[in-house]
Amino acid sequence: MRTIATLLLLASGAWGAAQYSGELIFPPEKWHNHSSSIVELPNGDLLVCWFHGSGERTADDVLISAARWNRSTGKWTAPFTLADTPGFPETNPILFLDARQRLMFMWPLIIAHKWETALMKYRISTDYQQASGPPKWEYQDNIVLMPKDILALTKDFAGEAAAKPGAEGERAKKLIEHAGDEYFSRMGWFTRTHPLQLPSGRILVPMYSDGYSYGIMAITDDGGYTWSASQPLVGEGCIQPSVVRKKDGSLVAYMRDNGPPPKRAHVSYSKDDGVTWSRARDTEILNPGTSLENIRLSNGDWIMVYNDLEKGRYSLVAAISDDEGATWKWKRHLDGRPTQEANVEYHYPSVIEARDGSIHVTYSYFVPEGKSIKHVRINEEWVKAGD
Question: What distance in Å separates the CA atoms of residue 309 and residue 121, rounded to the nearest whole number?
Fold first, then answer.
């Protein structure tokens, strides 16, 4: 295993000092390794998964890989297979521990080499703290959704544009046509960021569709055995939502910008535990059309990790807000800089806070030598110290 950067900034032995450490989970390789998800297990070990293969949705050898970090040894295991359906690509996996300490693993199977043909699969385990290899799964099913009010919301969003001549009008007409097609509306929703469990026990699984460029929430109130769909999160190319709960109980979803300039992260709000959502709008947060993740920390602050660019993925920053996203007063780069464009990509972050208060981030790490998944361990003090 190659450690590319390990830096400890310690004013003392106390955890309150600024701290950073980082390493690759495995050496860079020619294979495509992308879209990781990280979870801390009850014993303090870490489990990370990602998709691995010769490509993405069109490459039939793509499967879900994983590795474990052992708290006692401080080392990563060799990667192992977490899921593989031979002949079908599998992408964008996520890991999540619910309030009952059950491990949920979710990922899309791409049926026909198009994102619009994604079928969501998931597994549940209570026996997952092995020293190596995959968990023992107790339950497996698919998540299929009937998006709430999708035709009405799409007509409201795209109706005026559909009356215009030219390419914009044709795209809007096609969007409305798709929204009226039951099969198209129910297929193609899949994951990217961590689920969120609400105080009621409800679990929201953020998903999105490249067919619509909408987000959506898969909702379960019985621990993952039955599912319903929220309204889609509608806007100018808003996908891959990351959801956080405010102190007043309302929800905020930040999203990747797949729409026209200006390239900014989108935001949408829900006041009914994720069932209905406001029209997505631009924020001031830069986004080059790539995934971000935002979580609430135990002290109430928020941390967001994202590419602070309008184009490219060569600069990855962590930002802290102490006012629930109204401002982001502190920022520090995990990799790259906006002024240092190069033939590299650092992107698709997955973020958790561990029980000891440390913040763990994994992300896709693409350099000329190959592709890997990088893991970093930081704290708020490190971010607040700035570049």
Answer: 33
Interior angle at CA 154, CA 113 and CA 172, nearest 5: 70
Residues 224/126, Cβ–Cβ less than 8 Å: no
**Stretch 109-115: mean pLDDT, rounded?**
98
Q: Please write the tens of the pLDDT for every residue from 41-82.
A: 999 999 999 999 999 999 999 999 999 999 999 999 999 999
Structure tokens, 216: 């959506």
b/e string for 5-37 if b means 16 or more Cβ within 10 A? Answer: eeeeeeeeeeeeebbbbbbbbbebeebbbbbbb
* pLDDT tier at 283, thresholds 50, 70, 90: very high
Q: Could you give the CA distance from residue 328 to residue 382 in angstroms, rounded to a whole number?
A: 15
Residues 6 or more apart whose Cβ sits within 8 Å of residue 194: 37, 94, 95, 96, 206, 242, 293, 295, 350, 351, 352
Beta bridge partner(s), residue 243? 253
Calculate helix-pair angle for 167-179, 150-162, nearest 10 degrees: 160
Domain 30-69+79-328 falls under CATH 1.25.40.70: no
Provide the residue ranges of all domains of the chain, joining segments of one domain with +. 30-69+79-328
d(CA 44, CA 69): 9
Type and span of the H or E element at 353 = strand 345-353
Q: Give dist(CA 138, CA 125) in Å, integer.
A: 5
Q: Please, which residues have CB within 8 angstroms of residue 364's CB and are 6 or more apart in sequence?
A: 33, 34, 35, 36, 50, 345, 346, 347, 348, 371, 373, 374
152-197 residue pLDDT tens? 999 999 999 999 999 999 999 999 999 999 999 999 999 999 999 9
281, 249 in Cβ contact below 8 A?
no
Mean pLDDT of the chain: 95
